[in-house]
Structures are given as structure tokens and as C-alpha cells.
Amino acid sequence: xxxxxxxxxxxxxxxxxxxxxxxxxxxxxxxxxxxxxxxxxxxxxxxxxxxxxxxxxxxxxxxxxxxxxxxxxxxxxxxxxxxxxxxxxxxxxxxxxxxxxxxxxxxxxxxxxxxxxxxxxxxxxxxxxxxxxxxxxxxxxxxxxxxxxxxxxxxxxxxxxxxxxxxxxxxxxxxxxxxxxxxxxxxxxxxxxxxxxxxxxxxxxxxxxxxxxxxxxxxxxxxxxxxxxxxxxxxxxxxxxxxxxxxxxxxxxxxxxxxxxxxxxxxxxxxxxxxxxxxxxx
Length: 282
Description:
Elements: E1 5-6, E2 8-11, H1 29-41, E3 46-49, E4 51-52, E5 58-59, H2 62-74, E6 80-83, H3 87-90, H4 94-97, E7 107-111, E8 115-117, E9 120-122, H5 126-138, E10 142-147, H6 151-161, E11 170-175, H7 185-193, E12 200-205, H8 210-220, E13 223-226, E14 233-235, E15 238-239, H9 243-256, E16 260-261, H10 264-271
Parallel strand pairs: 1-16, 2-3, 2-13, 3-6, 6-7, 7-10, 10-11, 11-12, 12-13
Antiparallel strand pairs: 4-5, 8-9, 14-15
């Protein structure tokens, strides 16, 4: 399929921000599902999902992942569901991080290395990554390889060479996190040039750098992720009203650049998805 099509992902809610930071941030399963569906209607073909507990703190509860998926599908939304396995970047034990795979996503994040993540260590040991990749392979869940710096590309290549991650490879560059690669064009170009041939890639960036790096990805022929997980603002000093608002802007810019947002089924074709997570049944 032509690279005129662009896969737009939306990261609806991360693991740390609260409604006190932005009242539009979705917290409950119902709010998260609503944000996903609204974003899909604006052009997002992939929805990246974290879940929260009743107090709004990050959670790896399987029932909550299942509920979000059920609510998304019940509204006729066929977006590709991408569940997080990050566990809040070091806040829970490794076993809990596998929970979301049992909810049947088509994609799931695979954070391809350890990093000093702000004030804590986000640990992803070689043994854990191999087990995570193995479980994804067995569950027919495609890894979204999250790379915070160029060294993580090498870590993922070890898994690829062992046959634990299949082509086409899908990379998400996470830029601007303290301890990781800077959110600059120079960083992005270096990372893209470091990928194996035939790779597919997307980029997200933290804070105000989200939009400039998204636009750079559009013009470079890559794909892009937006959403309140990465940036709570629409522009300087103005909180975003919703995830859908951020997606709508990115879709508009992509079209102005001659790139039409891919539908979920077009995105499935691009990514080589063959699992069952796209069914409109829960």
C-alpha cells in the first residue's frame, strides 16, 4: 500500500496525569472507550490504551482492559486496539505487565530496554523482554516496539533475530522523555536511519514537542501518535479539550500534506495484522 496513507494513533490516557492536570483526561473505562471512539471518528486507526483504578491511579487489571475493549466494540468501532504492557514504567511487578495480553488486543507495546525514566528506573531486562515477546507471539499480538533511544533498536534486533518478532516490524519512537533521546528532528532522522530495511515507524513526543515531531513524521513518510498521554495541551497555555481534538488537527495536517489517514482495515493491511482483535465482538 502506498505511503500516501498514514496510520494515526491516539494515546488516550497514560499512567500518571490526573483530571486535576486536565479535566478532559479519560480515567474510567467508559471515558477511555468514549475517547477512543471519538478519536476513531476523527481519523485515528489505532487506539493505545492504559487503564486506571477507581482512584485514578495506573492499573494493570485485566477486567478493566477487557471492559474498555468491550465498550469500544459495542459502539461499532473497528479501531485497532493497542494495549500497554508498561505497567506505569516501573510501578508494578513484571507478572502484572502481562495481564493486558489476555484481553485480546491486536497490538501491544513492547518497551525495548531499560531507561532512567524521570525519577525512577523503568526496568526491561533481557529475560523479561524475551518472555514478553514470546507471549505476544503465542497470543498473535503484534508488538509495537517502543524505542526511547537508539540502543533499544539493538535490543529489539536480538528478539527479531531469535524469531520472536515477525515482520513487518512496527516501531514507535518515544522522544523527549527525560533519560531518553531528545525530541528533535536530528534524533528522529538518526533513529529512522538505524532501522532495518522494510521497517514501519511512528513517532510520539512529550509535551509541546508532540506536534512538531508529528508533522516531521508526516513529511518523512512515517506515521504519528498524538493524544493526552503525551501532551495535555492543544497549544501553549491552552489545555486540549479532548483526544479527538488532537487527532482532528493531525488528520487535517496530514491531508494538507497529501497523506490520507488510513482506515483501521487499511492500517491492518499495512501492519500485516492477522489476529482476531479486530472483531466487533468483545
